[in-house]
Write a sequence for this structure.
């Protein structure tokens, strides 16, 4: 996970890297959305965006936090 160290509330962008494969429509998309949701329950920002990536670098899910 990167980008979660210190929030400046302007554009906080955290990244979570997983060993999932595929993109938005993959079979892991639901799990990736759960990861984004769990991240949002632990961190707070006025303008935060967490993005979950797969092992190939494909974006699988994202969410505000």
């Amino acid at each position: 996970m990167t980008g979660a160290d210190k929030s400046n509330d302007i554009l906080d962008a955290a990244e979570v890297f997983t060993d999932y494969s595929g993109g938005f429509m993959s079979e892991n998309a639901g799990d990736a959305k759960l990861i984004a949701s769990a991240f949002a329950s632990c961190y707070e920002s006025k303008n935060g965006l967490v993005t979950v990536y797969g092992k190939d670098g494909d974006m699988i899910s994202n969410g505000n936090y």
